[in-house]
Specification:
Order of helices and strands: HEHEHEHEHE
Largest sheet: 5 strands, parallel
Helix content: 40-55%
Strand order of the largest sheet: 4-3-2-1-5
Number of strands: 5
Strand content: 15-25%
Oligomer: single chain
Distance between the termini: 48 Å
Length: 140
């Protein structure tokens, strides 16, 4: 009986090992909850998003809490210049970027001060991205 179980396990492992990798479209999309304005943490999130987009995964970046400063034109100078450049590149390459309106109001980020391509969130828009079938979420 033990030999039979080992044979079954070996067959299962060989089957999975020999299977071709799934295409990116079969893995769904990525929803990144970006809550920080820390340049290093933001750059990590955006670099990960970029790599997943390069693999064909659709990406939505939700600028939440202090993350709204990444989408703020008034924060472009200084410590946020690198992550903002990365955010602009993500938008250019097809990422959907949504800013939390409640967070914008709390931190004084105006609608007219957003980088081109950053959308002010609405429940329907954010929910459509977050609850799309086969969507994975990550938070920074």
């Amino acid at each position: 009986m033990r030999l039979l179980r080992l044979a079954f396990l070996a067959l299962a492992l060989l089957t999975f090992a020999a299977a071709p990798p799934a295409s990116a479209g079969e893995h769904g999309s990525l929803f990144v909850n970006l809550t920080t304005d820390d340049p290093h943490r933001a750059a990590m999130a955006l670099a990960f998003s970029k790599s997943q987009m390069a693999l064909g995964h659709p990406v939505t970046i939700w600028l939440n809490d202090r993350g709204v400063f990444l989408g703020d034109l008034n924060s472009a100078a200084g410590k946020l210049s690198e992550p903002q450049t990365m955010l602009k590149e993500a938008i250019k390459n097809g990422a959907q970027v949504i800013a939390c309106p409640m967070c914008m109001k709390h931190y004084g980020v105006g609608d007219t001060a957003l980088l081109d391509g950053v959308k002010v969130g609405k429940p329907e828009m954010t929910g459509a991205a977050l609850f799309k079938a086969d969507t994975k979420t990550l938070t920074w």
